[in-house]
Structure formats: structure tokens, C-alpha cells
Specification:
Two copies of one chain form a homodimer.
Chain A (H helix, E strand, L loop, with lengths): L2 H14 L13 E5 L2 E4 L4 E4 L12 H13 L9 H11 L8 E5 L2 H16 L3 E5 L8 H4 L15 E4 L14 H20 L4 E6 L15 H11 L3 E5 L14 H4 L6 E4 L10 E5 L1 H10 L10 H16 L2 H22 L3 E7 L2 E9 L4 E2 L1 H13 L2 E2 L1 E3 L5 E4 L7 H17 L1
Parallel strand pairs in A: 3-14, 5-6, 5-7, 7-8, 8-9
Antiparallel strand pairs in A: 1-2, 2-3, 4-10, 9-10, 11-12, 12-13, 12-16, 15-16
Chain lengths: 428, 428
């Protein structure tokens, strides 16, 4: 760490508290961003292979202009009439199945999931929630109960039950295929039965339809359809957390749940929605919205303000006009082919997964035993940072390299990533 | 309601759901804002006596420029090093007692209060919370448990206890003065004892130091000091929700808790912090921050991003350079004097309270019996809207006219408000 970074880190500990999350052994002091590039204080540039928040590229001029124009004109709450939120929600819901026709706008994906849980309560009259055992859906007190990583003071409330994370590389039910789905559904059924025996009752399954934090396993085609059928048969609802796969990241579809062949009851949105402007939303059916609006008073001062809507609308415009879904599909296919070629030369690569502009490689120290290599993954991510490439790790064993760049990522950017990976994997 | 408003309202019901909060019997279709003025689609202008979010005035060019500049340069999360958040938190905490030296930045006041509750848990090891019975601290599932208005599905969790709202106009303990404080403290002691007998234990009292939603009662000088002593003696902490009184609104002090003579353990901030850009924060001691960072993993993707910090910093600059605290104090004094003169002519005015640019009048149908006049208050607010003045109501009986304009509100604006009030009160 150079002197400037050391001094900033010390100041940060003092002002923000120690243990405030920070990336890399040698933290990066970023001062400027443009498209897929970030620049540090010394002018060094970094290829951003990590950030999904700047969805259409860092500081996209059209989003910046939309924010500037609207912030100069009007920025207020939604207890006055304003076309901005109506035009945006109309455009947004037009990208979903026609049953998902209404929305509440909030400021973060966490707020969206916090609302979604209450929609499950109001529409089913029950409060039990099921999530996977290595998921993350956000940071409010209610939503963070869904994570198993660090139980809250007082313990996880017993209205939350966890099912094992689907893992296509080390499948629950032995071989990949039908037993895999059956085993997951068996676990889900057990959790539903347990909740129905409790005072809470079964209300909802909340999942990321891409199982992004879980390490984006390759699932059988009917996996989510069969899962959704079980949830609906039990009188529960499906909350699809689209914070990561949504807005076309997977290339083939606008939404992760379309890719896995289900229509959720509630969809939550966040991070990439307005390219970094704090915007989240919950999209649902008019019946569920009605039950929520009858069961709870809810108002969000900043949610759906004209500036947020203008920024979010610009993102949809750019996605469409620049055909960024097609780009994600094509570049993602190319990157996976290149990663497969890389795996021929580097035994550390155990599995390659993903789709569109959300892919990665699971690292193992032994391909036969599939021994997770979290230390090597961490080392690789730090070496990549030194070479000017920003990535991260995720997954059950924290040994999956996560590549999730802005949607404007190209083949040339992929070549730079692959070339650097090739060199660094030789050094490990 | 004209045809355009009716059509927007119908579209709104369809896209956002029925019962989505909307002001006034005849909703206002606002399209532009500037300083203390809002303009509707037909060009009619409204004097904004309600909105505290545009703290330094609607669309203040300096805040807009700060947002534009920074959004063009870099907008990313805080897991990289960046001076923006450090400079802002240093400047912000310098306005507090030196014990309040660290901060977490979030996107809304609700998120801030949601964090504050967990700080109470981590620092005391207990989870019981006390609030007043007519408060509002935000909209997350955890924070909305503090409101008594509409109990959540499954009921209010019994870790929350309510104490009666202090009401100087209809005091709990008979006459205003010492028995008033003693009676409140007695109720507080009872709630603490009850929590300590439960499995939760007493953790914190969360209050707005101005009791804004409660109707901003005139409290005895030592009221909050005596209250804070009881809380601290019982091993609990004070969470001061400064979303409404903070950032100088009361004129005499930057923070509401300074005005009432206490140093809280945790302070939460929201609405006016960045003039409408979605920003909130929690300010606390380094010990409490340490316990929180050890007890919980917390990361907020949008919280403290460079654009949010630039907008929030511009607000502090403007407050200071334009001496807006002095303005709030002077205009607030003038307005109260004028309201008192108005009370001579209108029997509907039962009580006049408030300070700085947060004041109002409680309306009653009978001054001796102090009979609340919520219908008349609602009617007055709707008449004011027709006359181009935006206000609202609040308080235990929903009969207090709430005047809480941007900090640039002047004597001339006050004259217009008072003159219009005078005319309308004659009509009621």
C-alpha cells in the first residue's frame, strides 16, 4: 500500500469505523470512471470486470444529462402528481409478464426486498420465509435475517428457514439431472412443512433466479418451474430478487426469471436500475399490491422522485437503443469459450459457469476431488487488481471468480481479461 | 379535480396501486420547482410551506452543479478508497459533540433508523426499544414496528414499548411544569421495567428531539436531560432521530438535541441532508460503531457514494455561507409573532408552537375544552392549496397545521402565508 492509500485507510477507520468493507489487500483509490474503465489517483486505469451498478457504463453521459436536467427542474416526493414515475413504471412493467403490472419505487434493493417480505405477509396472512443457505438479499434488519453468514444479536428469527444452495458442480443429489431437482424440492417441502407446523406458516420463497451469490450454478431446465409449482401448491408466493440478473445482464432475456421459465409473484430490483443513482423497486400483481396497500401504510420520501425516474428511464433507453442485451449475450458466449480454452492450460480452473455478462470460473486445487481453492481465488483477485483488472469472488466456497462488468463490455475487453488471467494463473 | 389530474390519478392507481399516498382532495400536478416555489402544469405557482427535503430551496443550482460534476466524474460504492465520503463525514461530525465522531452513510432516514436499532442491540446486548405512541421513524419492517398507527401483520413485536406522547397543550400531569416531566419519566420507567422483565431487556429510547410528528410540544427546559439521565442510568442508549429538526431547521442550533440539552449516543439523519438526493446517515461514537461493525456485517451499495457526498457537502456549504440558521431563527420568530396576532382574530387557533422554520398552530373548535379540530384543519389545508400555499397537518389529534418550508423562506413569504391564513380562517 502506498503512503496516500495508507493515510486514507487510517482516516477511513477513524471516520467510518474499523471493519468497514474495503476491497483488495492493497485498496484502490479511484477518482474517475468512464464506460468500463476506472482510474486511480495516479492515473492508472483499471478494467472494471466487477461493477454491475454502472450498468450502461460509468458516468454514461445520457444518464448524467437526465439527472442534471431533472434535478434542475424538479425533485420532490410522490404525494404530488408527476408524470415521471407513471411513464417509468409503465415502461418498466411493459418488460414483464402482463400479470406484473404495478410497482412501488424505493431507493435500494434492500428496501425493495424489505417491502417484498411484507407483501408476502399481507397476501398470504402468514410470515414464514424460505431462502437458500448462502444467499444475500440486502441489509435491512428484516432482510439481513435471510443471510446465514452472521446471525443477528438475539439470533435468526425462526420465521426464516434455509434450504441448501443448489450447486451444479457438487450436486446435492449425486449426478446432475433429475435427482438434483428432486433433492432440492424435497428440502423445500420439508421447510414448508416445518413452517406450516409453526405459528408463522409458509408465506414465500425468496430467490435470485440466477442464484448469483450462491455461485450461479447451471441448473436443469425445469428446476425453477418445478420449484415454483411446489411453492404455489403450498399457497406461498415467489419473490424473485432480480437485483443481479435483471435488466438484461444474462443477454438472452431482460429478467432472470424469464430465463428459468417462471413468472414470479413479486420481483425486486436495485443496483443497476439507474446506473448508480439510488433507485430500487418492487414489481408485482395488482392483487398483491392491493393487499399490501391495505395491510400497511407505506411511503418512501425519496422513492420514485422525478430525478430517480429520469435516471432509470435513461438506462432503459440506452439498453434498448444500444442493443446491450445482444452485446451481453455475444460477449458472454465469447468469454466462456475463451475461459474453456484457458482451463486446458490451468488445472486450477475446476468449473466454468454463467451466462451473458455474469460468468466466472470456480477454482479448485484438485479437479477430481473438486477441492475449493478460496486462498488461490483471493490471491488471483489481488494479482488481477495489481495488473489493472477489477474482479471479486463469490459462491458457497468463496472460490468462484466473479466477472460482472458493465453491459458495454466488449470482445477486446474480454481478450485483455483472458490474457491477464492466463499470465497470472501461470504464476499461481 | 380537472380532467388532466383525474386522468393522472387513474393512471397512478393502475400503475402504483390504489391508496398510494397523495396530498389534497384536489391533488397538485407539480412540474417545476425553484427556491420556495413549486409550479403546476398550468403555470400556477405555490408557496411551499411544507417541504423540508429541498432544505436550501428547490433545485438549488449549487447542489445541482455538485451532483452534475460528480456524476460526470465518478459514482461508485465505498469499497474503494475515495476522499468524498471522508471529507463529508469529517465536516458533518465536526458539527456534533466530539464524542459523535463516526458515521455510516445510507440512502434514507429509514435505513439510518434501521441501522440505529441494530447499534442499540450490538452495544447493549439487549433488543427492547421504547418510542412514543404517536411517532414515525420510517418505513422498513423493523422501523415501522415503532409506529402504532397500523399494526403489522402478525402484530407489533413485544420488544417495542410505547410511552405517551408529551403534549404541552393538554399535559399528561395536569399543569405544564415539573409534574409534566415527572409523569413522562414515570411512564418511561414503567416501560423500562417491563422490558427488563421480558426476554428482550431495555436497549434504547428512540426519539425525535423536537417530537416533530407528535406536534412539536413546548417542553420544560430540563425535560430531555432528565429523560436521558433515566435512559442512561438504566444502561440504555438514546437514539436521536434528527431527520426533521436537524441541519439547522430550528435556527438556534444545528441539531435538535443541542436545543434540548442532551448528547445522544446515536443520531440519525435523512430527508434534508442532500436537498432531495437520496441520502441518510447514522452518526455515533467510535465505541458504538465498533460494536456494530463487530456484531453485524453491513454494507450499503449506494450509501456514501461520491455523488451523494457531493450533494450533501453542497448543502452544508450553502447553510453556512448563506447563514440560513440565522434566517430560520429570525423568520421563525417573526412568523410566530404574526400567528399570535392572527389568534386574536380567529378562535379556531388554540395553540401556537414551534421554533425556527418548523412551527404551526393547533386548531380547536373550543378553546376552553381544547376540542381538536381535525376536520377544520384538513379543510384549511385544502383551502390553502387552492390559494396556492402548500402545507399539511400533524400531531396526536391531526389538527396541527404544519409549516416546515425550505430554509430560504423569508418574511415576505411569511406575510403571504399569514395574509392568506387570515382570509381563509374568516371563511371557515
Amino acid at each position: 500500500m502506498n503512503r496516500s492509500s495508507a493515510s486514507l485507510t487510517a482516516r477511513r477507520d477513524r471516520l467510518l469505523g474499523e471493519n468497514t468493507p474495503l476491497f483488495y489487500d492493497d485498496p484502490v483509490h479511484i477518482v474517475r470512471g468512464e464506460d468500463v474503465w476506472l482510474y486511480d489517483a495516479e492515473g492508472k486505469r483499471y478494467l472494471d470486470c466487477y461493477n454491475n451498478v454502472p450498468h450502461v457504463g460509468h458516468c454514461h453521459p445520457r444518464v448524467v444529462d437526465a439527472i442534471h436536467q431533472q434535478a434542475s427542474t424538479l425533485n420532490t416526493h410522490t404525494r404530488y402528481l408527476h408524470e415521471g414515475i407513471l411513464d417509468y413504471v409503465e415502461r418498466l412493467t411493459s418488460t414483464f409478464d402482463s400479470s406484473l403490472s404495478t410497482a412501488i419505487m424505493a431507493c435500494t434493493g434492500s428496501e425493495a426486498n424489505d417491502i417484498a417480505l411484507r407483501m408476502a405477509h399481507s397476501t398470504t396472512g402468514r410470515t414464514g420465509i424460505i431462502a437458500t443457505d448462502s444467499t444475500y438479499h440486502g441489509n435491512t434488519a428484516a432482510v439481513s435475517q435471510l443471510s446465514t453468514k452472521m446471525p443477528p444479536i438475539g439470533g435468526v428469527e425462526n420465521h426464516v428457514r434455509h434450504v441448501p444452495t443448489p450447486d451444479s458442480y457438487r450436486p446435492l443429489g449425486g449426478q446432475f439431472g433429475e435427482p438434483f431437482t428432486a433433492r432440492f424440492i424435497d428440502e423445500l417441502q420439508q421447510a414448508i412443512t416445518a413452517l406450516n407446523k409453526s405459528k408463522h406458516g409458509f408465506s414465500a420463497l425468496i430467490i435470485c433466479p440466477y442464484f448469483a451469490n450462491e455461485g450461479f450454478p447451471d441448473l436443469p431446465d425445469t428446476f425453477m418451474k418445478e420449484t415454483a409449482d411446489v411453492v404455489h401448491s403450498a399457497g406461498g408466493i415467489i419473490i424473485a430478487d432480480e437485483v443481479q440478473p435483471g435488466f438484461g445482464r444474462l443477454g438472452t432475456h431482460m429478467w432472470g426469471h424469464e430465463r428459468v421459465g417462471i413468472i414470479p409473484d413479486v420481483v425486486t430490483l436495485g443496483k443497476p436500475m439507474a446506473n448508480g443513482h439510488p433507485v430500487g423497486a418492487v414489481v408485482t400483481t395488482s392483487d398483491i399490491m392491493k393487499s399490501f396497500r391495505s395491510g400497511y401504510r407505506y411511503f418512501n420520501t425519496f422513492g420514485g422522485n422525478p430525478v430517480s425516474c429520469a435516471a432509470a428511464m435513461a438506462v432503459l433507453d440506452i439498453l434498448e437503443e444500444d442493443q446491450l442485451l445482444d452485446n451481453a449475450a455475444a460477449v458472454g458466449r465469447y468469454a466462456k469459450t475463451e475461459l474453456i480454452r484457458l482451463a486446458d492450460r490451468h488445472d486450477l480452473i475446476g468449473d466454468i459457469r454463467g451466462q451473458g455478462l455474469f460468468f466466472g470460473a470456480e477454482l479448485v486445487t484438485d479437479r477430481t476431488a473438486k477441492t475449493p481453492a478460496p486462498q488461490e481465488a483471493d490471491q488471483l483477485v489481488n494479482l488481477l487488481r495489481q495488473e489493472g483488472i477489477l474482479t471479486g469472488t463469490l459462491g458457497v466456497h468463496r472460490c468462484t471468480l466473479k466477472i460482472r462488468p458493465p453491459m458495454t463490455f466488449t470482445r477486446a475487453h474480454t481478450d485483455l481479461l483472458i490474457h491477464t488471467l492466463d499470465e497470472l494463473l501461470s504464476r499461481l
